[in-house]
Amino acid sequence: MTTTPPTEHAIAAAGLHKAYGDKKVLDGIDITVPTGTIFSLLGPNGAGKTTAVKILSTLISADAGSGTIRIGGHDIATHPQAVRAAIGVTGQFSAVDGLITGEENMLLMADLHHLSKAEGKRTAAELLERFDLTDAATKPAQTYSGGMKRRLDIAMTLVGNPGIIFLDEPTTGLDPRARHNMWGIIRELVSDGTTVFLTTQYLEEADELADRIAVLNDGKIAAEGTADELKRLIPGGHVRLRFTDPVAYQSATSTVREATRDDDSLTLQIPSDGSQRELRSILDWLDSAGIEADELTVHTPDLDDVFFALTGSTDVPNQRQENVR
Ligand SMILES: Nc1ncnc2c1ncn2[C@@H]1O[C@H](COP(=O)(O)OP(=O)(O)OP(=O)(O)O)[C@@H](O)[C@H]1O
To answer: Which segments constitute the ABC transporter domain (predicted)?
Structure first.
């Protein structure tokens, strides 16, 4: 039996290449995910997100010339079985069998993981409880709502107690309430020390959940960082000062020359990347000019702006591209 060596990176892949015919889907990308964090891979349809998940989870191989891929400390090329034992994968196509009950689906997974009958039953009951499926456990899974099926799918993935979970678009098609429930589940997984590799087409989801986000475009990582770091990459951020006293507003407008003014709402917008350094200098400068605004708000571009600016996606309607600030 292989033991898992301690590692600070749950996932470390260097120079990942994958081509289908002439089409380079992944053109030498590096992915590093610290243990116990959520990493999100974003990209337009067909960018190669699922291909990356399939490679990292041993379902397909990377092309020759790729660098080393280590998952949970194991080299995927030499120890694929150890990698499989360390991971769970929930793909876009559910592993749930609709004809049998939720509980039977769980017991089937327990069998696959060679748990004893008693242990299988205990694990199934625990996970069904944790995912709020106890009441539905004896009903056929095909009668479940979309959200319940996804919860069952993740519960099944957890039977083997994996330390690293790949979630390929886990909330696609779910209504907002079910999506928020799923976010809660994902956060809970990570608070227990699990590492999550998440692909999503919902930028809000990456923004909400991910410690780090990588944007995949044209086979390369176009940018990587925290949501805030990515938002600062593109222009459009500003600090807004709002005044209630027209005299104070007038004096500010004559002092702050590069600001955009809105005389109706007595507000000024000063271009800013929203960084702590820039904010401090704006505040120091307002203080020294004796300007006191009634409200100061910082506006950074949202992740949608970043995504469209970085991917230049042809899937994006023109109107949306014009809106990139
Ligand atoms: N087995 C295959 N044979 C040929 N081309 C493939 C194969 N699998 C994927 N591709 C192509 O590789 C590209 C990347 O596909 P992939 O499914 O990884 O994208 P994705 O980012 O997950 O997209 P989506 O968000 O639509 O799921 C696509 O152009 C796809 O058509």
So the answer is: 11-243
